[in-house]
Specification:
Beta-lactamase; 15 strands; about 30% helix; alpha+beta; about 425 residues; three-stranded antiparallel beta sheet; five-stranded antiparallel beta sheet; globular
Length: about 425
């Protein structure tokens, strides 16, 4: 398939990126011109806060085809940050892709998926009381991943896809520095290589497909040590006066995360190698649940005092418990762990015909101790995302567009 010449300039050069930091004078000046004193403090201390930002301006032509202009601030794929729950996003896409490639009659994202156990540390899932039919499925796990960043849902997709397939597929797509090695549960490196047997059954419990347990024999490059902080609490809650070792932890650079998001929102904007094998219904399903808020769904039914509108919407909204206007849709995936906060977002304003992508990460851990649950998320992290998001949003509201975008494909209908 031949792509227009302009596309080469807007795609991330996945294969050829070097480890040099990427910076845009324009983005730096925009943020500093509008920044509060608190935001300026963070911007002036990139080494302390280890922030990275990518703002993507989207312009449409007369046919509504999108072109992208990326602006960077302190973006460096060699600078490690813990991606936390953002790794759930590619697994959601890979799980749907795997189902499509299996192509088994009666097995789809809504089919009941039962997880068994066959190795020490593994657990089973035979029902799901939060689902309308009481049964677990790939679709329901994906709902929970995007609604509230559910950890168990991620673990079950990790077990269905398998560690080896996850990483080999991402590497094949050009994300050669991606590394997803673990579930979000206490487990050894060896236990994370073993994944559970899985069964798909119909409404009467009849077996449609059995996937045996799998073992990942992948060799990861752990030659580069990744140490964070000054001290940490270990698994036994003992204080260790040494940095925490993230060498074997999950790794997904910010540019990879944004490109993965773009490849699903705008599959026509990336080359064939970087597209997930998804159906039209998959895309529609993903757009819906990437934008749906916890109060807008009955399955699962969430306590909205804990899972409020902006629970997983960091940019523009997360500081406090902000309500999100119904005409603004944020399709995104966030992550938070060990003092790192990350958000990969596409913002759509249906009323004002505004759209943009914004990705960022920040580290807020004043005492330098990890696993002590003392991080400045509320004091520094969430306000950083809210202010940066609103500066970009206000810029987008005012800038001229040659062609008004047709955003109807992202005008998802909530469940209620």
């Amino acid at each position: 398939m031949k792509f227009p010449a302009w596309l080469a300039a807007v795609l991330f050069p996945i294969q050829t990126m070097n480890a040099q930091e990427k910076n845009s004078t324009w983005l730096n000046e925009l943020l500093r011109t509008e920044a509060s004193g608190e935001l300026l403090h963070i911007l002036n201390n990139p080494d302390s806060f280890q922030y990275q930002l990518i703002y993507t301006k989207i312009d449409r032509d007369k046919y509504n085809a999108a072109s992208f202009t990326h602006q960077f601030l302190h973006v460096d794929k060699a600078r490690y940050f813990n991606p936390a729950s953002t790794v759930k996003m590619p697994l959601a896409f890979l799980a749907l892709e795997k189902l499509n490639r299996m192509n088994i009659r009666g097995v789809n994202k809504y089919t009941a998926m039962l997880t068994d156990s066959s190795f020490p540390g593994q657990t089973t899932v035979l029902n799901d009381s939060t689902a309308k039919n009481g049964m677990p499925s790939v679709a329901h796990y994906i709902r929970k991943i995007f609604l509230v960043s559910d950890n168990d849902a991620y673990n079950r997709l990790y077990e269905f896809i398998g560690q080896k397939t996850i990483n080999e597929r991402l590497w094949q797509m050009g994300y050669t520095d991606a590394r997803i090695t673990r579930r979000f549960v206490r487990a050894t490196e060896e236990e994370n290589r073993h994944t559970n047997p899985v069964r798909f059954v119909d409404a009467q419990g009849k077996l449609l497909f059995f996937q045996p347990p799998a073992y990942s024999d992948l060799e990861f490059d752990f030659s580069k040590k990744v140490l964070v902080g000054n001290a940490h609490y270990d698994r036994d809650e003992k204080l260790i006066q040494e940095p925490m070792d993230f060498t074997t932890h999950n790794n997904l650079p910010l540019e990879y995360l944004q490109q993965i998001m773009q490849s699903v929102l705008f599959p026509e904007s990336v080359n064939a190698k970087q597209r997930f094998d998804l159906t039209t219904d998959d895309y529609r399903f993903l757009y819906k649940y990437m934008a749906t808020l916890p109060p807008q769904t009955d399955y699962p039914k969430y306590d909205t005092t804990e899972f409020f509108d902006s629970y997983t919407k960091f940019f523009m909204f997360r500081s406090g418990k902000s309500n999100i206007p119904p005409y603004i849709k944020v399709l995104n995936k966030t992550g938070w762990s060990y003092g790192f906060l990350t958000d990969i977002a596409y913002v759509v304003d249906l009323k004002n015909k505004v759209e943009f992508m914004l990705s960022g990460t920040i580290y807020v851990n004043r005492d330098g101790v990890l696993n002590d649950d003392k991080y400045e998320y509320d004091e520094l992290g969430y306000p950083f995302f809210k202010e940066v998001g609103n500066i970009i949003y206000q810029y987008e509201l005012k800038r001229n567009r040659t062609f008004i975008p047709d955003l109807s494909k992202f005008n998802v209908v909530e469940e209620q």
